[in-house]
Design a protein that fits this description.
Length: about 180
Amino acid sequence: MATKQRSDDPEDDVRPPGFSRVGTRVLEVAENLIYGGIAVFLVGSAFVLLAVAAKTSWGLVSDFSQKPLLEVLDILLLVFIVVELLFAVRTTVEKRELVAEPFLLVGIIASIKEIVVLSVEAASALGKGAEFDDRIVEIGLLGVLVVLLGVTSFLLRRKEREPDEGDATPHRADR
């Protein structure tokens, strides 16, 4: 006869000695303050970047060329990166664990940002031999990086949907 495994282990509720409890609490408060400071700086950075993007967009009225448009796109993609980092900080504080997916998205957005900038530079370097070739190689490598980060994100999401390894109850549909 199989014995039922208890999910309530009495040792899980054992608290560390007094100094460890206080030390742990102090470190937890310090960690929250640091994450709060990071969040404040990220929010401030995002608003500053939005203001810079608005100012650069206003410049498009007088100079409707490729350069200011590329600058606006570059700044807005940077805002996306900052917002994703802010999401990563918020998720870390809420779940009390480091979550990899927001950082993968930051890598994807940053790579796409560089691909956009490099493709414009490559277009202006067309016919300049080695300079053009360098830009194309960089674009290709960044494209491979985007694919790899995307596959990693997909596999991470797939792994999160699987049941925990230590789960004692089998998940069978035919019962």
